[in-house]
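Chapter summary example.
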Amino acid sequence: MILTAIYLTFKEIWRNRGRFFLFSLVIALITILVLFIAALGDGLGNGNREYIEKLNGELIVYKANVDLSIGASRLDRAQLRAVLRVPGVKDAGQVSFSSVVLVQGDGKKFNVALIGVEPGKPGEPPVLLGRGLEARGNEAIIDRNVALRTGYKVGDSIRLKSIQGTSEEFYDLQIVGISDGRQYALQPSVIVSHQTFDRVRPGVPVANPTDLVSNVIVVQLDEPTNWRAMAAILADQVEGIQAVDRVTAYQNTPGYSAQQSTLETQRFFSLLIGVLVIGGFFQIQTLQKVPQIGMLKAIGASNFLIALAALIQIVLVTILGVSIGAAVTVLLALTFPATIPLVFSPMAIIIGIASLMLIGPIGGMVSVRYALRVEPLVALGLGG
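The structure predicted for these 384 residues follows.
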């Protein structure tokens, strides 16, 4: 019976191959839409969370009562020393954030996140090429995104433009290392020492800063799995701070949650549209072949055979459409420049394709149900 159902399925698909191929292209377009929304969600999410998510520390310490806003948080050296004195803290480093303009030799400009770290402390990213920062010197680590967009290599010089007071100032830094992707606030990152950060960051210049003030403190623990208890201990023993894990930190970056909720809603409606389109097509297809279904039933075909043939047809057309869509998505992805925030992660692609493979049978269930209700005599025009 299974072989009969497969034979009927292939016979009908081949007889109407033009119609089924066109519908497979419709499924392919839905596949492209779903996969690109998933890639955009991952890309924009990475742009907001990449630096924080990859931090070499288990806890992020903020000033208390700032609603986990990095921009509003201010922590000084005394609070860093207090954090380091808490039993269970392995190491800690201050990290500051700002934004400047990178000016290329050909005059092209784009915004980058300027991140100030303590060399050798938590917060400084590991480098893939070159070396880490030293406390003094006009040095910088650029992340992979800056390197891709500019072509800069270790040893090259970069120029940063910053507004100091009311004037534009330019600073030349030497690239000593290149890290992996470390975007922050949807911007590629340039990581410098705090001494360089205080000199370059936009604002009113301070001639002789007396204290190192940062936005957050990154904390490494002796027992990383004990971060929940340590977050409470830190808040209890160090006055005026709040400690959270990395996930909570990046989920509270401005716009992150709203952005991801919007993209998830778009993904849901894309799948819903797919279910309705596939269901509508196979419903029309079933209505057009009511006489054939009636004839099959009249000569003894069972409801199981009719349903199995219909399901195999739905699955095959869906597989063809999803395969075409996935292949086109991969080819298109190769043509996009590094400036477009698209990340095709394997897990997102697997989930997207699995969801699309499910919507075919789900959307076609109405047509299967209708096919099972066809009465042979009525379908052949011999009954009332």
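To summarize the output: The chain has two domains: 2-49+257-379, 65-239.
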